[in-house]
Specification:
seven-stranded mixed β-sheet, 2 domains, alpha/beta, five-stranded parallel β-sheet, elongated, 15 helices, 12 strands, Rossmann fold
């Protein structure tokens, strides 16, 4: 556990959680830049509320990318800006709780990621600017009015999670011989997950694949549902959200025991034993979220900052998992991968 993670999880007596969060970034970046004219005009440091959907450990690559970009733009935590962190740990009810703290604190901008957390923050404030580092379908889920003109107090980056469903199925078919039946699992409490599951069902018949839906509402649904798939499907397509993230390692263990190759949207799930993933590079999305925050702190309105699309996409393959499943991944496929985990 790094120093900044430790300070958030184990507060010594007499020091508030806000006190820890305010010091969080000091361990991440050197205090090298002079105070900005903005901070001087305001008479206090502008405050960024950073709402993480899971834990500091899981999100450390994203936080580092975000804070690093802010530093490049002249914003240094503890010197001319303050970043306060809150972690939902995969629990949906915590989004509202943490957002209420940010609203009471009067932060200048709230940064989050994921459709569920973003919608929760939107319900809590119509005034504070919100930047989402990634959202599955920001128009389809009602986060923004349009990509070009978001409207309201929200803007950010789409991760095109729904748009890439067909690509992921095609990739699965390339590595799973005689792929005919796929289970698509997702937390249907999350709007963009439902949209992605619908898209999988829509595109699957075009490539000759039959789809079974495994709808999740809570933790207790996950593992009995997976075990019920034994012998009925050839692969598992997992729609990701904070609930799934919290249980990824165990999901992969169960899938492995049932000989189910898994497809995810992001690299982190493959690092924990999934077979492969295809989707945007998340650290890059969080890095670019720093540009949005910079514009807002300098006076731009979220309604007038267009939502942006991913620029970098990664195909990640876990060769150790493939071998355990008895899959022989073609060399031509591995050459296309951005990363092969062995």
């Amino acid at each position: 556990m790094t120093g900044w993670e430790h300070r958030l999880s184990a507060s010594p007596d007499g020091m508030s959680r806000r006190g820890f969060a305010a010091r969080l970034g000091a361990a991440l970046v050197p205090l090298a830049f002079p105070a900005s004219a903005f901070a001087q005009r305001q008479g206090r440091l502008p405050v960024i509320g950073f709402l993480g959907a899971t834990t500091p450990t899981v999100w450390s690559p994203f936080v580092n990318a975000f804070v690093g970009r802010l530093r490049e733009l002249g914003w240094v935590d503890g010197r001319n800006v303050s970043i306060e962190y809150r972690w939902a740990e995969g629990r949906h009810e915590r989004y509202a709780e943490h957002t209420a703290e940010f609203v009471q604190r009067g932060v200048n901008v709230i940064v989050t990621s994921g459709t569920g957390p973003t919608l929760s923050v939107m319900q809590a404030t119509k005034e504070i600017p919100i930047v989402f580092a990634a959202a599955g379908d920001p128009v389809g889920t009602g986060i923004v009015a349009s990509l070009a003109r978001p409207g309201g107090n929200v803007t950010g980056l789409s991760n095109q999670q729904t748009d890439l469903a067909g690509n992921r199925l095609e990739l699965l078919r390339e590595v799973v011989p005689r792929l005919k039946r796929v289970a698509v699992m997702g937390n249907v409490r999350v709007p963009n997950v439902t949209l992605e599951m619908d898209e999988v069902q829509k595109v699957a018949p075009r490539i000759g694949v039959e789809v079974t839906r495994l709808e999740i509402h809570k933790t207790e649904d996950i593992f009995p549902g997976l075990q019920a798939l034994a012998g009925k499907v050839d692969a598992l397509y997992v729609c990701t959200d904070p609930l799934i993230t919290t249980h990824t390692a165990r999901i992969n263990t169960v899938a492995m025991s049932e000989k189910l190759p898994t497809m995810y949207a992001f690299r982190e799930y493959v690092r924990q034993g999934g077979l492969m993933s295809y989707g945007p590079n998340f650290p890059d999305l969080f890095r670019r979220a720093g540009d949005f925050v910079d514009k807002i702190l300098r006076g731009a309105k979220p309604a007038e900052i267009p939502v942006e699309q991913p620029l970098k996409f990664d195909l990640i393959v876990n060769l150790t998992t493939a071998k355990a499943l008895g899959l022989d991944i073609p060399e031509v496929f591995l050459v296309r991968a951005n990363e092969v985990i062995e």
